[in-house]
What does this fold into?
Amino acid sequence: MGAVLQYKQENPVAIMWKYVLVLVLFIGLGTSVLADEPTTEPEPEQLPITELQQQEADSQQQLVNSLLSLSETLVARHQQLAALNKQLLRTSKDAEKAELRLEIDALTTETRQVEQNIDLVILGLQARQYNKDNREPEKVNISDEISRILQPIVMSLQRTTEPARRMEELRQLADQAESRITIAKNTLQSINIFRQVDAKYPKDVKERLDRHYELWTQRLQEAQDLDLALAEQLAATQRARGSSLKQFSADFGSFILNRGVSLLLAVGLSLGFILTAQLLRTGASHLYRRTHGGVLSAGMRIFSMSITLISIIGGFVIAVSIFNIRQDWLMLAMSLLLAVALSWTFLRSLPALTEQTRLLMNLGAVREGERTIVEGLPYRIERLAVYTKLVNPALKGGELIYPVQELIGMHSRPVTEGETWFPTKIGDWIVRDNKHYEVINQTPEHVILKRPGGAEDFLPSTAFMNTMFEVITDGYRVSYQFGLDYQHMNEAQAQIPKKIDASVSKKIRSALGKQSLISMETRFVSLGDSALMFTVLVDMGPGHGKDWQKLQKFINLGVVEACLTNKWAVPFPQLVIHKA
It folds into this structure.
């Protein structure tokens, strides 16, 4: 029955509920991060006031020193550019002009970088956000209405992650400055190797060495100043943010006081409305089952489905209305996003939902209260719902839960009076393949048969149903045949059967009890080749299934005792030899 637990396809109704649960959890957990109401910045760690003032003063002085150093670097860059431009005007060689233009372009790029670094030291990274906040929101590649829905979520994410992104950008700039310092030091070390050697270089080469030395010295100083300024900005930003625990506490407190109240009201009232509607539906269904034989009619099922649909839609409308009244645009946008997801799921599942709706209204080929066959075994459809309950009362653990889509393609029929659900019950005795068994367990998967002596046989339930066997728990008949010599033909019609009946019945009643034997009859059945043939028929009462094998012995003993008492001869089989 493993197929019961493996669904061929997802139930569309279950998918919709999964969307509701997943997105509600997403809303509940995510809004603490997406909170966009203004929050009070956590206070920095408690330090003595004089120490804080000293730190602020040192930080300001470091920034001023960095700015002065970068300003000197900028003035030097402009002077070098002016000198290179004059040299470009004086030279007449094309090769020198090309080389000078390359140096001028590189120096111009570095000059712009120095100017940007000066702006970074003066304004910090937060100034860049000024222009971003005043820009119109970027259009997405979908319709304007969807863009408006997603806009609060995207903007809230941007605002929430802005401090972290700013810190990461400062770290990247600091890493870049450290890399430049390393490059500049290595380059200066290479230049100094040639400058420190006591050698007479040509004038052009010496001027080139001096120019490169001056340029890379300025670059090293610029990178060191920028690295120091960025380190100070990182430290100042971290002091402003405070500890992570305090930041989390402030964000969580803001969420509870603002968006948390909206979410609590929306979820509480929505769930309250849904639960109230479901209680009404359950009570009405229970009352109807009690008064109508335990089966819901199609009209009552339509009523129940309508109540469920109204409760879901009503709960959603209540949540959206609360978000709208409290002007919580982020939660409102996420609610509309949830509605779009549910609508898309509903449209994709519409063909399957149509057939499932017919089944749920008890108008399909499978109906509540009827009998159906599942993997070769009969079951009663106890409750027809999204997850249908199938019951076989004769099997241990004979309750199955089937999703409604698994019932598509199945059939059912009304249950007839006195119809059995399984041919045996636990404790029954059966005779199968001329062997004696007791049924000690039967489930939807297997039947366990126990032989006298303790050996057990395991059979799949469907295989057990497809075999021939005899249930002897509530009574059975045993037949026994024997033969007597032809010399007793005069007694064969009446006296011999009467005496055999008396002897065998006495033996059985003395061994198994007076009530064990219901009836007994000995019949003269035929004239055999060498004997008069008799058949003994013994009918046993209920409760003696376990004595099936013993009964054979008692019949034998009774027949032998009668033969000895009455001196009846039992002939041997004759062998007739024919000559050729």
